[in-house]
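Objective 1b. Sequence-to-structure analysis of Peptidase M22 glycoprotease.
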Amino acid sequence: MTCSVCSPAETILVINGTESRLQVALGSGSGLLWSQELQTPGRAMPYLAPAVRQGLATCELDLAALRGIACVRGPGGFTGLRLTLATTLGLARGSGLPLAGIDYLPAIAASVAPLLASELWVATHARQRMVYLQGFTPVQGEPFCAPFPAPLDTALGYLQRRETALTLVGSGLRRFPEQWTEALPDAVFLPAAWDHPHPQTLLRLAEEAEFTQTPPSPLYLRASDAEDNLSTIAGKRGLDPDAARQSIPDFLS
């Protein structure tokens, strides 16, 4: 946790609950005022609001006096995204603050790409034997493809066809690590310490984002497990599966 003298008019509150690490930060692109990180796999709800409250109290800030609130919008865990996006929206509506969204994979890349001379690929965990994958240029960390979900074998085959030096990072590497290293023996695999964006990076990206009164849309790149099993779930509740599916907003189109 870090704190220094705070300037409310330029201060942004950033929230990230995309994966198991909950991140809450206050500051701007020019400086980190306060941050807290908690390892909360699947159970961030009891900790998010108290963390925001603690940060504001520590820096003696009133939420309504801030510049805005930014939230990482995915791709990532459905529960964490729903929780953080809903909390962000509630805080914004109660305080009148504008909102901004941050994409998760570019945030990870932005923390490490300036240190690299080779092509960077971020691979985060999506579900069992599936990852979210996106490639970035070294140094600038500019994406050269859109993020996409891929089964592990498909992702490995895709990267094997890249005719260049590769550096990889992300939570998707921590499961089945032997399969990654065997398939890509010449690649550089960064340690897990780089799997999450630095709070200062989140603040810099938030400062560059567009703040509006419209809440950021979640970046869902695949159907949830519940959607994949919707027919079974609907049947157990006596609902028509087709009618149940039509009632779900299509975030993937």
